[in-house]
Automatic annotation (TrEMBL):
Taxonomy, superkingdom: Eukaryota
Coiled coil: 36-63
UniProt keywords, alphabetically: Coiled coil
Organism: Paramecium sonneborni
Name the record gives this protein: Uncharacterized protein
Length: 239
């Protein structure tokens, strides 16, 4: 049999072991808690850095120029029932601040259409940039137009009278402009096309290609070429 002293020694030893194990568990728990706390702090720091990066990215994206759309291609690719044409060929080049005129008619399959509603059309100047730009003002923020820029197509006909352009085309890509004449108002037409109440969306704009605007006219330097009624250039005349 074990002696009382031996039992006391064993009991004391077991108590020491238990205390030691408890201390170890406590220490490990404290270490785990420290590690957990440090990881939480690290995650919070990372989260803040991510938020800052997202904010910077957002600001950079906001400053990016919007992608510009080629409006000319959109106009060309649409389907139309009618189109605007010139009544007669336009002699080019035009000259800065010199008055000229464009007579218009509304056609379908080369036949003049007598529209019942008044159609408002507008002359616009576009550049030959990679993505064409509508030109309205010069570098001094002055309008490039003087005189007539809008006209009414009434009963199939209309005329842009006393057109004046105050900017030469040589300062721009290709050295020429596109002149576009397009409907901008139809009087809010609804419904019956058979009465020739014609919506502006049904009308193909007139795009006059390669319009040269020169500074001055000298008789010995004036070499005319012509834009045909559909706006295309008569190459034979140009040569």
């Amino acid at each position: 049999m074990l002696q009382p002293n031996s039992l006391m020694n064993i009991s004391f030893r077991l108590s020491e072991i238990s205390t030691h194990i408890t201390e170890q568990i406590k220490n490990q728990n404290e270490q785990f808690q420290v590690i957990y706390t440090e990881r939480q702090k690290t995650l919070e720091k990372l989260q803040k850095q991510i938020e800052k990066m997202n904010h910077v990215i957002s600001r950079v994206c906001d400053k990016q120029p919007p992608q510009r759309i080629d409006q000319i291609q959109i106009l060309k690719n649409q389907q139309y029932k009618y189109e605007l044409q010139m009544e007669e060929d336009l002699e080019l080049p035009c000259y800065r601040n010199r008055i000229f005129q464009i007579k218009l008619r509304l056609v379908q399959n080369e036949k003049t259409i007598i529209n019942a509603n008044n159609l408002l059309v507008e002359l616009q100047i576009w550049t030959y940039d990679k993505i064409p730009k509508k030109l309205t003002h010069n570098n001094k923020n002055q309008s490039i137009f003087k005189g007539c820029q809008q006209a009414i197509i009434k009963k199939g006909y209309g005329s842009l009278n006393r057109i004046q352009i105050k900017e030469v085309s040589s300062h721009f890509p290709k050295g020429v402009f596109m002149m576009i004449i397009l409907p901008i108002d139809d009087g809010a037409v609804i419904g019956d096309e058979t009465k020739y109440q014609i919506k502006k969306e049904w009308i193909k704009p007139l795009i006059i290609s390669d319009v040269s605007i020169k500074a001055k006219k000298f008789s010995d330097r004036h070499n005319p070429y012509y834009a045909k009624s559909d706006g295309t250039i008569n190459i034979l005349e140009q040569e």
